Each structure stands twice: as C-alpha cells, then as structure tokens.
Amino acid sequence: MRLGFGNITTTERHRIASHTTPMPDLNRPPGNQPPTDANLQSPSRRGIIIPFPGRPRPQPAPTPTGMTLASAFDSFLLDAEARRLTQASLRFYRQQIGYFLNYLQGQGVFESSELSAETIRAYLVSRQRRGLKDHSIHAAARAIRAFCNFLVREEVLQASPMAKVRMPRVSQQDLPAFTATDIDKLIATCYNPRDRAIVLFLIDTGCRAAEFITLNIGDVNLDSGEVRILEGKGRRSRTTYIGDKTRLHLQRYLCRRPRHRSDHPLWVSSDSGERLTRSGLRQLLQRLGERAEVEHCHPHTFRRTFALWSLRSGMNIYALQRLMGHSDLQVLRRYLPLAEDDLLEAHRQHGAVDHVL
Questions:
Q1: How is domain 180-343 classified at the architecture level of CATH?
Q2: Which end of the chain is less crowded, N or C, counting CB atoms within 10 A of the terminal residue's CB?
Q3: Could you tell me the residue ranges of all domains in the chain?
Q4: pLDDT, tens only, 253-278
Q5: Residue 238: which H helix or E strand, with range?
Q6: Whole-number Å distance between alpha carbons of 14 and 12
C-alpha cells in the first residue's frame, strides 16, 4: 500500500521526517552508523545526571578496608606520635593494647574486621579474673576504646565495637593521705639534706613524680619560691610554689652540690650523680616509709596530701586546680567529702554554743 503526503504542508512534512529513524547503512561498520534520534537526545533524557555548577558530585559511601590487627596497631602508634602525645601516653597505649592483641591472637583473632563487643567483654572479664584492680581494668577499656575509635576514623571499621561495651565500674575508695605526724616521722628518718628537701618539696608543691624528676635547677626561683613545671601532664606547663621552710632545706641541699648550673637536674642520684629516675624516687620513698613505719609512702600520696591539706586550710578549689595542673575539677571533688568531715569534727570540738555558752 502506498502512502503519500497528499495535502500535508511542508512544515508537517519536515516534522515527520525529523522523527523518522533512518535505516542502517549495511555498507558501514556497526560503530560508524549515522546518528539516530536516540543518540541526539539530551544527556538528561538518556539517564545521565549533569551536576549544577558548585554542587558536589555524589560520592559513594566509604567501605571498610581489610587490615590486620598488627598493622592497625602500628598505624595507631604512628598517629599517636604524630599528635605529639607524651612518652607516658605512648607507653600506656603500647602496653595496654599490646596485652589486648596478645589475648586476641590466643583466641585466633588476627583481623580488624573480627573485632566485636563480645571479644572485648571476654578480654575485660579475663583481666578481672586474674585479680587486677578496678583502675587497671578501666585503663584497659580506655585504651581499647581509643584504638577502636581510631579504626573508625581511618575507615577500617564502620562502627566501634566499644560502643556496645559499658565501661567497667571503678569503686570509690578512701584516698590515703599523710598526717602531720607521718611527715614528721619521714623527715626524722632522712639521712641527708637531699632526702629532707625531697619530702618537703613533694608535700609543698603537690607535683607529679614525672614532673618532679624532670625539674632543672633553673626552674626554681629560690628568692620567690616560684617553681616552673614545663613538662606537665599533656605537655601543659604551669607554675607552683614552695614556702620558706622548703626553700631553706633546698638551699642546704644545693650548697653540697659543687659547680651546679641552671640547666643541671635539680634532683640527682646520691650514687651516680645523674638525674634521679622515677624508679629511683619510688625506691627512696619506700625506704623512708619502711624506716619511719609510715604506710603508702608513694609519690602520689604526697600529691593527695597536698590537695587535702590545702582544702583543709581554706584554699580556693579553683586555685588548687591550677596549682595541681588538673584540666577539670572531677578529681578534686573526691577530696571534698574528706575536708567536710574535718569541718564537722572541728565544729563538734569548738562549736560556739556547745563550748562557750
């Protein structure tokens, strides 16, 4: 049947021709055919999305990448060093996470993707059954939490398995502190000016053991009693002070050290003359405690005693926070009930109505 255009106008004839798909040319190869109407469609009609200027292209969601726990641990330590964490923090993470990974290897877990809340809980329970203290178990959980958060940031894991694990409880125990009689006993058992200066310096400044052993002679102003602590916790520096009695004993100690300079260590070993180490300080205080029959003679007991005695004497808690180098008041709040008990006892002994009227 023959179809003709008849009375169709020229405009309609062109419109019909423009919608007519041309027949393929059999003499041309398939990839060299003339363009068709489908090929001439706009990109949006062919399903292609053209982003508007300034609009970011849609990105696919990140997928976890496989990584062994050993490689992840190395990356974690490298990140910690890059963030300039202190050597104490690096030792803490290296030890705590090292224990955790050794446990996982014993359980046949070697890949980061195999980490689960169940394995973490099992590890914490195993530490508890070994008789570790509450603070040690809590420290292990903190290290694991930091490790898992790192794996999430690095897109090794999609979610932290520690998010499903409750942090272990830490029992609130009484914090041991010295009495004035204890300090008198310790000073009486000191055999040289250095040891007496150490006892008074620790109780007068409340500085940490790591801060104490890194002090140089130039960090202490013997005229004003100002002590500059440059290597505090978290690399935070601060200023604290010593009183007249401590300055007197410190001068007596330094007078026995010939040719000392401001950049020399403030505290040195009596045997080697080198800077006193943390273990050396701990052993020294332990010997003093045994001779004086004073319990809990550790560096941190001096720090707690400084805090408690300062609160008892009426020091502002915010001033005490700055002197001790705390980032918040959470730790100091643990001393407040002890100081309030002292106030209650003082009122019972010296209350105006009961003892005057």
A1: Orthogonal Bundle (1.10)
A2: N
A3: 69-164, 180-343
A4: 999 887 778 889 999 998 888 999 99
A5: strand 238-241
A6: 5
Contact of 224 with 324, CB cutoff 8 Å: no
pLDDT digits (tens, 9 = 90+) for 203-247: 999 899 989 999 999 999 999 999 998 865 656 788 899 999 999
Question: CA of 84: how far to CAs of 77, 87, 228, 326, 344, in Å?
Answer: 11, 9, 21, 19, 46
pTM of the model: 0.61
Give alpha helix (H) positions in the chain. 10-18, 69-82, 87-106, 117-129, 134-153, 180-188, 193-205, 209-213, 244-255, 278-292, 299-312, 317-324, 336-350, 352-355
For residue 356, the Cα-to-chain-centroid distance in whole angstroms is 54
Helix (H) or strand (E) holding 228: strand 226-229
Identify the helix (H) or strand (E) that includes residue 226.
Answer: strand 226-229
Residue from 237, 191, 187 nearest 215 by CA: 237
Residue by residue, DSSP assigns 259-305 as: T--TTSBSSB-TTT-SBPPHHHHHHHHHHHHHHHT-S--SHHHHHHH
Task: Encode burial over 78-99: b for 16+ CB neighbours within 10 A, e otherwise.
Answer: eebeeeebeeebeebbeebbee
Q: Return the exposure string of 118-141: e unless at least 16 CB atoms fall within 10 Å of the residue's CB, then b.
A: ebbeebbeebeeeeeeeeebbbbb
| CATH for 69-164, options being 3.40.50.2300, 3.40.50.970, 3.40.50.720, 1.10.150.130 | 1.10.150.130
Distances (CA, A) of 24 to 27, 29, 40, 299: 9, 10, 16, 93
- Assess contact for 124 and 168: CB atoms under 8 A: yes
Of 22, 147, 27, 16, nearest to 76 (Cα)? 147
According to the model, what pLDDT value does residue 62 have?
45
Task: Specify the 3-state DSSP secondary structure of 239.
Answer: strand
32 has pLDDT over 90 = no
Longest CA–CA span in the chain (Å) reads 133
Residue 223 has which token pair? 């005229």
Amino acid, res. 277: T
